[in-house]
Design brief:
By secondary structure, this protein is of the alpha/beta class. It has five helices and four strands.
Amino acid sequence: MQKVKVLFVCLGNICRSPMAEGLFKHLVEEASISEHFVIDSAATSNYHIGELPDHRMRQTAASHGIILDSRGRQFRQKDFAEFDYVIPMDKSNRRNLLDIGKPAATTVFKLMREWEEDADSPDVPDPYWSSADGFEEVYQILLECCSNLLDEIREKYGF
């Protein structure tokens, strides 16, 4: 069985993209369809390779019953060919990814907030320099986006 491969990308792979990865995995597990997916996250930079997500993001996730235990890694050009969905968190991340390479013709390459109804910005804000409220805001944005993304994938692939 071929799996749907989803990759979330942000600048450092310690806040937004690992939250999206953990949240999407959680939603997939709740739907009992984990066997249909490969879910990962990556950074456009090399600042935090091998590190756990930011402790504030892990605390926010834990408060919603989600464990973030992935380790930071840098996006590789071959990820465009290996993943069905490559989802940057903001326009800057998208530009950085396009500097690395070009998505495969079949790769869905869209900003995360394109799965949010009535988004007030195309960008998921980076909470790194914000208060705890900023991390919770990112969680809420990603919850809607990941839920809508999962609905779209389930409809497209029939599971």
